[in-house]
Write a structure and sequence with these properties.
Number of helices: 17
Strand order of the largest sheet: 2-1-5-3-4
Structural class: alpha+beta
Strand content: 15-25%
């Protein structure tokens, strides 16, 4: 068990690595390259966009019998998050006798590499996919590669190589982690809190500096709540897709970092009668799978949120708390009537998403308070939901705007309309004036003039880096028209 030793322990290819004396904001990428000389993992963008730094991070499954792997952008992940876990890099795949992994060999055979800079990340993305899915479809292959940019080879030989590798069979494609299992059991992080002699919770830091700055990795919700009461200025770390960017680009060095990745209560989805209660540490990938049948448009918005390494680590709660004006998940959550469960110490309260934001990147969270869970309503018979994201690139791009519409149809008339956007206001928000234009009317009764007037009355015109206001206003109206066409077809 790692305690206040300033040592991060993780497993790498059948050996325990003890990383001592490293900064709390050292990235996994930098440690692999600079300390372990694992130079196969590359830095291309330090933003999580290019995929040259992809590695696989593993942790024991619930039963402790196997390792579950996630592809991650090592440029964004902070080293202390590895404590108690394992890592596989491009160097991990070659067997002791020199035999290449089937994905590596297939890329050689299909000429899937030229300069080779992106190749390690491509290999890790594909090997991670085929570890659990040995015969992926073309769509699954291309989705797994959506975060790997290749500027010289082109993607056809890479995709051909993926198909060729799948012929090797499940056994050959399985990552060998037999030597890692007992070591992971040995360094597994504690699952119960530590108490002092007075019965108070003591959150053991993974890394602590002489100045008292620290990185903590609690295992229980009670520890998180207690730590935030004592250190309300703490930076909460979930997927690290935002904080990792701040560390790399703004040289951010938060004094106190509290990592939520080991809190079992925050990683659960509770299936309630009328809603799902989604823990704050549940990844976007898990949410995407959860809503795929119930709200396919929401699932598609999440799929386009980012690449698999981003979606596998980024969390729904993190996207909400970050409060970006162009946050992709929020319009869907606002339209669906989502409720947030907030906690401060032992006290909890429920806040509707409509009331959460108070301005650009500002919200109602009090010092020491955090999002514990998101309550997402399940579909109700007769209700309809549509959502669509518009961006310059289809994959891996920031929204110009994302629009979501939820309603029911009664005798051909729209009722209980909830419409929300991002990119049009300082924070994602509903559009009540446009909702009023739709409410109580049939889809055919809604006019262009009424929509344009409502949009003009609802928003302050702003040009942005991603789109001019004229373009945003046009697509804001056209997305509603597109949804109304679907509503008209449903009422026929």
């Amino acid at each position: 068990m790692t305690q206040a030793t300033n040592t991060v322990r993780f497993v790498l290819d059948g050996a325990i690595v003890e990383a001592s004396g490293e900064r709390r904001t050292t990235t996994v990428l930098n440690y692999l390259r600079e300390q372990l000389r694992r130079s196969g993992t590359k830095e291309g963008c330090a933003e999580g966009d290019c995929g040259a730094c992809v590695v696989l991070v593993g942790e024991l499954n619930a039963a402790g019998t196997a390792v579950d792997y996630l592809p991650v952008n090592s440029c964004l992940q902070l080293l202390p998050t590895l404590d108690g876990k394992s890592v596989k890099t491009i160097e991990s795949l070659k067997k002791e006798d020199g035999t290449l992994h089937p994905v590596q060999q297939a890329l050689v055979d299909c000429h899937g590499s030229q300069c080779g800079f992106c190749t390690p990340g491509v290999v890790m993305s594909l090997s991670g996919l085929m570890h659990t899915l040995p015969e992926p479809s073309r769509a699954q292959i291309t989705d797994s590669l959506s975060g790997n940019l290749c500027r010289c080879t082109g993607y056809k030989p890479i995709i051909d190589a993926a198909h060729k590798a799948s012929a090797a069979g499940a056994v050959a494609l399985k990552i060998d982690d037999s030597r890692d299992l007992p070591l992971l059991r040995e360094i597994r992080r504690p699952r119960t809190p530590t108490y002092n002699l007075d019965g108070d919770i003591v959150v053991q830091p993974v890394v602590r500096t002489r100045k008292g700055n620290e990185f903590v990795s609690p295992s229980t919700l009670a520890e998180v709540a207690d730590y935030l009461l004592k250190h309300p200025e703490t930076t909460l770390l979930a997927g690290s897709t935002e904080i990792g960017l701040q560390v790399n680009k703004q040289f951010a060095r938060p004094d106190h970092i509290c990592y939520l990745g080991n809190v079992a209560e925050l990683r659960k989805v509770e299936d309630k009668e009328h809603a799902w209660r989604i823990g704050a540490q549940v990844s976007l990938t898990e949410v995407e799978e959860l809503v795929a049948d119930a709200y396919p448009d929401f699932a598609e918005v999440l799929r386009r949120f980012g690449s698999p390494p981003i979606r596998s680590t980024a969390t729904l709660a993190g996207n909400i708390a970050n409060g970006s004006p162009i946050g992709d998940s929020m319009p869907c959550l606002l339209a669906l009537g989502t409720t947030l469960h907030l906690r401060r110490g032992e006290k909890t309260r429920h806040v509707a998403m409509d009331s959460f934001y108070t301005g650009q990147k500002q919200n109602v969270l009090k010092p020491g308070e955090f999002i514990e869970a998101i309550e997402l309503p399940k579909p109700v018979r007769g209700h309809r939901f549509h959502a669509h994201k518009v961006s310059k690139r289809f994959e891996q791009d920031i929204s110009a705007t994302c629009c979501a519409l939820h309603y029911r149809v009664v005798k051909g008339v729209l009722k209980d309309v909830r419409l929300a956007y991002n990119g049009l206001t300082p924070s994602p928000a509903r559009a009540p004036k446009i909702e009023a234009v739709l409410e109580g009317r049939t889809p055919g009764e809604v006019t262009l003039q009424a929509l344009d007037a409502a949009i003009a009355a609802s928003f302050t015109p702003r040009d942005g880096l991603r789109a001019t206001w004229a373009y945003r206003a046009l697509i804001a109206r056209n997305l509603v028209l597109q949804f109304l066409e679907s509503a008209a077809e449903e009422t026929v």
